[in-house]
Amino acid sequence: MKAGPSQEEIRRHNLGTLLRHVHIGGSLSRTALAERMGLNRSTILGLVSELASVGLVREGLPRETGRAGRPSLVVRTESDRAYVLAFDVGVDRLAVARIGLGGVFLDRREIPVPPGGHDAGKVAEALAASALEMVGTAPKGTSCVGVAAAVRGMVRRPDGLVRTAPYSGWEDEEFGEDLVRRLDLGLPVSVENEASLGALAEHLRGVATGCQDLVYLHGDIGIGGGIVTGGRLLGGDQGYGGEIGHMVVNPYEGRPCGCGARGCLEAEAGERALLEAAQRDPAATGRDAVRAVVEAADRGDVAARAALHDVGDWLGIGVANLVNVFNPRTVVFGGTLREVFLGSAAQIRSRINRHALAASRENLRLRVGELGDDAVLIGAAELAFSEMLVGPLETLARAGA
Amino acid sequence: MKAGPSQEEIRRHNLGTLLRHVHIGGSLSRTALAERMGLNRSTILGLVSELASVGLVREGLPRETGRAGRPSLVVRTESDRAYVLAFDVGVDRLAVARIGLGGVFLDRREIPVPPGGHDAGKVAEALAASALEMVGTAPKGTSCVGVAAAVRGMVRRPDGLVRTAPYSGWEDEEFGEDLVRRLDLGLPVSVENEASLGALAEHLRGVATGCQDLVYLHGDIGIGGGIVTGGRLLGGDQGYGGEIGHMVVNPYEGRPCGCGARGCLEAEAGERALLEAAQRDPAATGRDAVRAVVEAADRGDVAARAALHDVGDWLGIGVANLVNVFNPRTVVFGGTLREVFLGSAAQIRSRINRHALAASRENLRLRVGELGDDAVLIGAAELAFSEMLVGPLETLARAGA
């Protein structure tokens, strides 16, 4: 428990907070900023001027006002002045984006996983090469202020070591450090689990904006989870929290799981369980294969309907457990679970009603993610921007701009 | 997101933080306080003087120094100057305590649940009468600065409404408001779930001191949970978070649960499951009956050993799920689960090793609560003190002292 901040720390905090408001909230008038921050208008004016003098925000006319008369000016971010690099290491594709203040995608590329994708070094090499091309073509006077990468695995919080990323075959990879060396931008690289970043994105910019307590389920080959409780991303002691795919829901009769246990939620309700139950070609996997099952069920395919029913049962049980444990306001289904939810919502709801306590579920909203496949990149960008939003001037100065 | 604090807010924050340090940490030298709070010694001197002038702390010689030479003075709380009232509404007994700064029990009584204990009004009446006797006998010049009550049920965070307390037969009881009226001390009454308060107590003063991520399981008739993540008590959207007793672990074959579902952790591993499996007299319930099963198992009683084995299996599965979801540093077994853990630790550990991910459990510690039956009262007292530790002078002034 520390003492209160100094005057200088307060000034830094206020600059960061103002920038965060316009970064997340878009265009805001100085009056609105004064209200949200609890400061008087002259203090706000000073803060806006300071951020504008280094090119992070500018004032201008609102895009549309809908009212007659002279509109008041609004403050907005200069989306190109400071940007971050966001990486998403998927199972079968890599994505790289250059994202500006305000969450604007300035550049975006997908590249195939390089041959020998189990070699984390080759993945880092491909990502770094693509990112450096983006940095090279960025306009003059713009600065990269942060880098973050999403992986399908368990990431140790203090140092970003990827302890295990089973679908990439990684164990104890210093992936972030490797990216730091290859990029050579003088910036640290934050590494985080993809579902946690999906949760962060939907919390800040998606379907759960303004919601302080949410559970995000991310379907991919496996089932990942990202949890926001009291407005903060749950990490746990070492950063491994949120592994909801390995909650045991069927301990004795359950299907074997990749983790070595039996009856995990991921084993019962993951992609493989769905595709097997729907009697699909074992070679077909991924989002398209899952979508095909949902479409077949819509057309009346008996095996597909039964598969969605079973998977919905297990998902409902898993979500009910999470509702009892977290009392979230919103549960968000992302990745391939978006499609699965749309195909088995009735079953999921029925299980939640049976297994979740009445008080815990009475205000519950079930939603599909609204950021789609970009959720993870958007979350990575927010993680990469976090230092900037704490100390804008210091971060910009360190970026050599 | 608010702007940084004013000078006055900083002063208040620093007074509260200093008081919290000595309230939780015991006697501390001014040098130690300066270090922990990141303030210089003259600022600390000013804060100590201000708190001492209203009688909340005093400086004196340490109780023992173990070093030669003149010992430095230490700051400690005046345990009797400001106190709180803590209530614990158990299933078969009520407890009331008057607890001073520093967590010192100044007075403590147990009273039986009044006839017709399903009437929340009668319970509040008995608690208030006992508490007012304590207030009446408190020394002159002392002030009651907060009141909190623990209940075995689900409590709505914003207003303290007891939505349901199944073992007391309560539904939608304005229990806190009722206590406010009956006590008539001009103070609000905070109401909270008993397992959340047990978690808070073990986190602040017990076996998990200094641990920021812990899961506390409280055994009573049912199984309650209190979760601290990132140093904060998990509440969820409405305050109902932590209902780990209703995680489904055995959805198809499971025993019926009091909540109406089947295969909840509480149904499989709670007191009733243990006593039935151990073939005990159905009339014997409670802590003594549970302890008798553990003792019988120690002596080689076959049914008792089998019962502990089964219950340990389910508890281990439940804990493994919580380890995957929360990645806690410490799992604490409190209430009757203290005894159950001591009798089935091997089984619990074996299940955790099978079902929890290796990274999530590698630093995990399993512990029994060290505050015993008082954990809940201690947690209630901390909740009642929380306003005092944010603004000591304002709280004292409001208490009319």
Helicity range of the residues of chain A? 40-55%
Taken as a percent bin, the fraction of beta residues of chain A is: 15-25%
Q: How would you name the CATH homologous superfamily of the largest domain in chain A? A: ATPase, nucleotide binding domain
Give the averaged pLDDT of chain A, no decimals: 93
Major sheet summary line of chain A: 5 strands, mixed
* Low-pLDDT residue spans of chain A: none
Number of domains of chain A: 3
- Strand order, main sheet of chain A: write it out: 6-5-4-7-11
Determine the CATH topology of the largest domain in chain A. Answer: Nucleotidyltransferase, domain 5
Overall structural class of chain A, as computed from helix and strand content, comes to alpha/beta
- What is the count of β-strands of chain A? 16
Count up the helices of chain A: 14
Order of helices and strands of chain A: HEHHEEEEEHEEEEHEHEEEHHHHEHHEHH
Radius of gyration of chain A: 22 Å
The appropriate CATH architecture of the largest domain in chain A is 2-Layer Sandwich
Distance between the termini of chain A: 35 Å
Judging from the principal axes of the Cα atoms, what is the shape of chain A? Answer: globular
